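Backbone-to-sequence.
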C-alpha cells in the first residue's frame, strides 16, 4: 500500500467515525425531545393514555408517566416514523429517563450511543421498579460495550431476584412454548421440506450430539458431502432408526455438564444455557431425569496460571481459557469460546509460551484475521485484551464487551 493510499484509507475511517459520533449526538437529542414532548402531554387518565396496540399495556414501565394517546402521531410524523414506531421511541425514552436514570445520564452526556440505551429499555419495560433499578445499576457502567444477550441475562436475573411470582409463571408457561412443526405445504422443487420447533434444553443438547456424531460417522464411511447436508441425512437416519452409530445396550445416558454458581438468591448458571441465570428448581428438574448423568465440574481458580512446554494446550489449559474468556476475544465477536481456537498471543515459534497468560480464544475467522491481515492484540491482564487494527484503531476487549479507546477524530482547522 502506498503512502498516499494509506493516508486516503485512514481519512475514510476517520470520516466514518466522525459521522458515527455526530449521528449518536443527533439520536440523543431526538430521545431528549421525545421525553420533553411526553412531559407536555402527560395525563392521569389511564383510559386516555397511550398503550401498545389494543391491550392496556402502557408504553413505559411502572413509575413512568402516562401520556395522551393522541400525542404520539404528530411527533412520529415529524421525525419520519410511523405512529407505531413513534410510540416505541417515546416509550423507550420514558423508560430510560424515569426508570433507567444511570443509563439515561450516559446517553445525555454522550458516553453511550442512544441505540444501545434503547435496546436496554426494550428489555426492561415489563419489570417492576425494583427490578429495573437493579438492571440500571448493573448495566450502566458497561452499557457502551455489552451486547443484547448480556442485557437479557441481567433482566432474567432481575426477574428471578425481585419478581419471583412472575418468574414462576414464566417457567410454568414455558411448557406451552414447546413444539415441533413440519410444513409439508411448502415442499421445494428439490424435494425438501422445512420444520422448526422449540424443545427442552437438555433434549436439544442430546439431539445435537447424536446428529453431530452421526454426521461424523457418515464422513468416516466416505461421504464427502458438506457438514450441513450430512447433518440433515443424520436426522433422517435417526427418524428411520438406521443410525450408523449405535448406543450401548441399556437405557441411554446423557451428560448434563453444569458450571454451577449458587448464591443466596437461589440462582444458578449453566454454560450450555447462554449462560443465562436459571432457577435451582429448573436445574434440579433436569438432574432428576432418570437417564441423565449430572457432571459437576470442580471450581477452577482462573487467577492461577497454567502452562506446558508443548505447543498444544492441555485439557486443563483449554478449560481455563474457555471459562475465562467466555467468547471469541476479537472486538464485538460473540462466538462461544468452547468452539474457538486457542491462540498464542506471542507466537510459539517466536518464543511465546503455551501459558494461560499467553493464550486467547479466537474463532477460526478472527484467528486467520489476526495471523494474516495486520490485526494484533496484547493481553493486559487475564481476560482483558487491547487490540490494534491495521489502521491503528485500538479496542479494549474484556468479558463485558468491546470499547473503542482510540481518541475521537477532530475536524481539521479551517482555511
Amino acid at each position: 500500500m502506498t503512502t498516499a493510499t494509506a493516508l486516503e484509507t485512514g481519512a475514510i475511517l476517520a470520516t466514518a467515525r466522525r459521522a458515527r459520533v455526530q449521528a449518536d449526538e443527533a439520536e440523543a437529542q431526538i430521545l431528549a425531545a421525545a421525553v420533553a414532548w411526553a412531559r407536555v402531554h402527560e395525563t392521569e387518565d389511564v383510559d386516555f393514555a397511550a398503550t401498545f396496540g389494543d391491550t392496556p399495556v402502557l408504553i413505559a414501565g411502572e413509575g413512568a408517566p402516562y401520556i395522551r394517546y393522541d400525542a404520539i402521531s404528530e411527533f412520529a410524523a415529524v421525525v419520519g416514523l410511523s405512529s407505531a414506531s413513534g410510540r416505541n421511541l417515546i416509550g423507550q425514552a420514558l423508560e430510560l429517563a424515569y426508570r433507567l436514570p444511570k443509563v439515561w445520564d450516559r446517553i445525555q452526556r454522550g458516553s453511550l450511543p442512544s441505540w444501545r440505551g434503547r435496546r436496554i429499555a426494550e428489555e426492561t419495560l415489563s419489570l417492576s421498579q425494583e427490578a429495573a433499578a437493579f438492571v440500571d445499576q448493573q448495566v450502566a457502567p458497561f452499557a457502551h460495550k455489552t451486547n443484547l444477550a448480556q442485557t437479557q441475562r441481567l433482566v432474567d436475573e432481575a426477574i428471578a431476584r425481585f419478581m419471583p411470582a412472575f418468574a414462576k409463571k414464566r417457567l410454568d408457561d414455558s411448557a406451552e412454548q414447546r413444539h415441533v412443526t413440519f410444513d409439508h405445504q411448502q415442499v421445494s422443487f428439490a424435494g425438501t421440506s422445512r420444520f422448526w420447533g422449540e424443545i427442552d434444553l437438555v433434549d436439544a443438547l442430546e439431539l445435537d450430539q447424536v446428529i453431530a456424531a452421526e454426521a461424523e460417522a457418515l464422513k468416516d464411511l466416505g461421504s464427502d458431502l458438506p457438514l450441513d447436508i450430512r447433518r440433515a441425512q443424520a436426522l433422517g437416519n435417526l427418524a428411520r432408526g438406521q443410525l450408523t452409530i449405535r448406543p450401548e445396550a441399556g437405557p441411554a445416558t446423557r451428560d448434563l455438564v453444569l458450571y454451577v454458581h449458587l448464591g443466596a438468591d437461589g440462582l444458578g448458571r449453566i454454560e450450555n444455557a447462554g449462560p443465562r441465570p436459571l432457577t435451582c428448581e429448573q436445574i434440579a428438574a433436569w438432574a432428576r431425569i432418570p437417564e441423565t448423568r449430572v457432571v459437576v465440574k470442580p471450581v477452577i481458580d482462573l487467577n492461577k496460571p497454567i502452562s506446558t512446554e508443548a505447543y498444544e494446550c492441555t485439557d486443563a489449559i483449554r478449560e481455563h481459557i474457555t471459562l475465562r474468556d467466555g467468547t471469541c476475544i476479537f472486538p464485538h465477536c460473540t462466538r462461544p469460546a468452547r468452539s474457538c481456537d486457542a491462540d498464542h498471543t506471542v507466537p510459539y515459534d517466536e518464543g511465546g509460551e503455551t501459558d494461560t497468560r499467553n493464550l486467547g480464544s479466537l474463532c477460526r475467522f478472527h484467528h486467520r484475521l489476526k495471523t494474516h491481515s495486520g490485526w494484533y492484540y496484547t493481553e493486559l491482564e487475564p481476560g482483558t485484551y487491547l487490540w490494534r487494527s491495521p489502521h491503528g484503531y485500538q479496542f479494549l476487549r474484556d468479558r463485558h464487551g468491546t470499547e473503542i479507546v482510540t481518541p475521537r477524530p477532530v475536524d481539521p482547522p479551517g482555511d
